[in-house]
Amino acid sequence: MTAFVFHPFENHNGRLALENVDLVDLSDKMGSPLLVVSENKIRENYRKLDQAFRKRYGKFSIRYAVKSYPNLAVISILRQEGAGADCSTPEEIKIANMAGIPHNRIAFTPNNAHKSELQYGIEKGVAINFDDIPQMRLVKDQLPEVVSFRVNPGVGGGEFPGIVTAGPKAKFGIPVSLVAAAFREAMKYGAKKFGMQMMAGSNVLDWNHFDAVTKAYFDLAGKVSKELGIQFQYLDIGGGFGVPYREGQKELDLEKAATCIVDNLRNACSKYDMEEPVLMVEPGRSMVSNSAVLLGKVTNVKSYDKTFVGTDIGMNLLLRPALYGAFHHIVIANDLSREPSGEVDIVGQICESTDKIGKDIMFPKAEVGDTIAVFNAGAYVSSMSSNYNGHLSPAEVLVGKTGISIIKNAETSSDLVKGMIMPEHLKN
Ligand code: LLP
Question: What is the pLDDT of residues 159-169, one digit of tens each?
Fold first, then answer.
């Protein structure tokens, strides 16, 4: 049996490769751990999503959710494809702008922001989606030209509870019952142009979810539009488009998702006499997740009452399994034909019992020195990593148009103490 590998990664004579680059050799050469990203895959992901919507609805716009992987090169690839950016902090706005995305193509959807952070967004002229009415009041004397709120359409959904972002008791957005009041209050402060945003949850593979959520959302927009006599410049449905993490898992049917989303929007427009707004999406995961693998080395194998495959990839680099119980497919990159031999936990070097990147998985007999590859390492991996236990973040390389480029240097020891100051009295 040969280990399964996700496209665009390939099995070249039992070794993992990307566009003829042998990833085991690359890891040996560049150092371990190493994050390897495919430029082509990011472009392919963008085009697939863009085409699915654009052929059905011309007023369509993509803003890449920078939080998923805020690397300048990655953002620039998506900018070249036509993406704007969705940012959650002023710092993400700065990164997106450094990657060449102009402020008028950036949306800012902060949660519990300081007044100064909202002011930063207003000064730069980015679109702001206020998360709550009091957040708008903080800047009522200097509102942006287009006032938009993040709403909670009352329905949420995501791969697991930790990544559901709407529905009952959600941390985000304004509940349905208060949405009209929010816009009415903005009108009182002089607002004349409006937008609306939502984000119901992440990593959804079932198109029916998008049907249910956008039905509720566009209906809400229509009601508000009619009741207050306002038009929306844009209606933003957030991200959430899922990708398979397991062998055999069915991909999200983007054609079906786009069809029902656009139908729901058009139905609401005609039902409530609403002008067709720009339909906006903010994908993160679906742009980058499957474009990258994290390569690491097996450093120890411990087999007593349980088998632990010790590696140099732990929760410091890949937090998702420890944080949410998320699954990532892992293979032995230097020998893809090795047969699975038993159940193991794949663990890192962190002083925590939850430091597992694979739990109770069937795995081949691993040996010290083997190279492992963790798939779906593009989204929420680098961006959620930490220096815990003194681990330095690894280099990130892009396999792209012009060959192999380093897009982030590995950290060095001095990075760990950067900004720390030793008071005089502690120096002796
Ligand atoms: N827009 C907003 C306002 C968001 O909060 C998010 C993600 C996105 C867009 C992008 O959603 P995506 O297309 O990636 O589903 N750390 C978690 C995912 C949390 C998502 C939070 N918001 C994980 O590792 O699965």
Answer: 988 999 989 98
